[in-house]
Amino acid sequence: MLTLMFVVIAIHLFERCSAHSENPEYLPSLAIKIPNDAMKDTVLVAFIKTNEKKFNLLSHEYESVAQQLTPYLQKQDEDLTFFDRLAVLKLKADFYAISNRLMEEMEEVDIFFENKQAEGMSDSDFSLYLAIDSAFQQRFNDLNRKYPSLEKIINQ
Length: 156
Description:
Blueprint: H1 2-19, H2 42-73, H3 82-120, H4 123-146, H5 151-154
């Protein structure tokens, strides 16, 4: 029984890891450039690197769902079978959940830098915040350009 449970867990982890590996069709991962003078702040560097990884993971999940959902969105509603509609419903729920998590990541960054500002933010910290915010906004724009059919879902 223990062996079976181990195998199930191993398969699940393998699927999760392979689902998030770099797909050549995905947008390239974001890489936030941290200025040298900000490298001294280990808390800041760890925060940026952690959020960079989380944002890239969510971006790849977004693209995975977008790629699965796009063929359904290109069909007329009356051409969708019952099972197609169920698949669309599940993928839309996944899409909304990922979109929400992406927004939460952006909010987490905002809160972190608001706290830094209250402590007295340096110019390099502020420029780093602007770079992160710009990179996140650019990623959203790139995703919207790459998957214009998702505009149907966003505007519903």
